[in-house]
Write the structure tokens for this entry.
Amino acid sequence: MSILTVGSVAYDDIITPFAKRDRALGGSATYFALAAHHFTKINLVAVIGDDFSYADEELLRHKGIDLQGLEKVSGKCFYWKGEYLANWNDRISHDTQLNVFEHFEPKIPDSYRESNFLFLGNIHPSLQQSVLNQVTQPRWVALDTMNLWIKETRSALLQTLKSVDVLLVNDSEAMMLSGEYNLYDAAKTIAKMGPKTLCIKKGEHGALLIRGNEIFTAPAYPLCRVVDPTGAGDAFAGGFLGYLASAESDNFDTLKKAVIYGSVMGSFTVESFSVDRIAALTDGDLEKRYNEFVDMTHFDS
Amino acid sequence: MSILTVGSVAYDDIITPFAKRDRALGGSATYFALAAHHFTKINLVAVIGDDFSYADEELLRHKGIDLQGLEKVSGKCFYWKGEYLANWNDRISHDTQLNVFEHFEPKIPDSYRESNFLFLGNIHPSLQQSVLNQVTQPRWVALDTMNLWIKETRSALLQTLKSVDVLLVNDSEAMMLSGEYNLYDAAKTIAKMGPKTLCIKKGEHGALLIRGNEIFTAPAYPLCRVVDPTGAGDAFAGGFLGYLASAESDNFDTLKKAVIYGSVMGSFTVESFSVDRIAALTDGDLEKRYNEFVDMTHFDS
């Protein structure tokens, strides 16, 4: 099994209540790939500028992530400058520069076309659609999106959602997309749009999975010392979809474990700035925390 | 086993984003008792004014709650007027009138003195201490408090905490009391004050239990349609302590199940205004939702 992911590979300037970091490696595809490569082969599709550092490219390559689809063009990488406020939940975007992403047209290498799993990271839905169109009947498609696309490009998003199996969003995005206040009702409405499975990412409050009448709810890993929340949602998606791809199943019990692997990946990501922690993660670290997660959530029924 | 609880029995005027209710039966001891009586005998200690309705007194009596400690004096019941804002998390207190509670001196009936479990509801710590002083070596003492008492009556609270086994508070209260930002560190600091077990009530986000190196985290029941959040924390305490008293054990596996019963009680409470839902609850409703909770949280490790 292999996962094709499309999204951003970026540089971020990050300000937190306690520290700051400039030119931190970031982007949805970066975080996703660094989480998901623990489980299966990753085919990455993104665009970078000529300011992308050799060291960062080597970091990805060294993990075995396939970079044939990482297009390098003249100009600068996608750039975001963000600040997290004292409660960690609110963040201010001080600057967003699309740069090389502005005219990005994803081109899927031939060797990627038969990827079984697709992760369409949080980018314009027409770019997500373009990737879908170039792939031969993927077995499972997961999509992330945000309030901007739900509001500004709704019809394109609805078109893309028709081919999607699982939608990964936060609760306010699910409410905005569905027009439903209750997440159970939201899942029913979204299922009619395409995605039969809704995965609500709640950050420090865990995750909720709904497919038809099946529901699973999980808390977050509780011991995190948060340094930088950037990328936690994309790493969650990487753990989630990575585990699914490795398990070669989409029964609900498998989906539940996928949520836990997603939460574990998110919990590592926030422990350091940028990709520092997740890039240093071993399979042993991953299994150890998964088992801790089991201990801290299981109870005798 | 029996539980002695002291707290308020009150009338609330409640405003929510969708509706309002005047003179709703409320108070921490009311919600606690209506949740906990499903598990064990409840000895209630509180004060009411002569405006307390016969119907409300009968409601409590009809549940088998012992009302020998419910003192009736001339004047009006404790009164609170509160409004919940659109996100349900923020609430405004428009009015608080202590009324008969202002000069309340808890008097414990002789038949209550050997209660095995104590729940000291969210009232002035010197009143909590007064109850403690009148009871013969209880097996387990649980205490709820709030930012007001932590800030304004810290030394009295610290004195009372010395005799407490489990502290039930929300995360910001735990941080304020301990001076620690991380809840794991907060639990260590609070353990030195007395309570070896810390139970963090997170409302719609579940609950966290810490005792020494043992940790349990649980999401909330996810399907709630919130009508009125008032009393959910007290009902949580009622389910939590009620189950503990009935299980006659405080090993960590028992505490975990107690958290789930607490969450289940909280989830029922918010479904209707005031005590409407929790007062109508059957043992069958309780077990059904407990089992649903198991289904929605368990995963194969």
Q: What stands out?
A: Chain A has a mean pLDDT of 95.
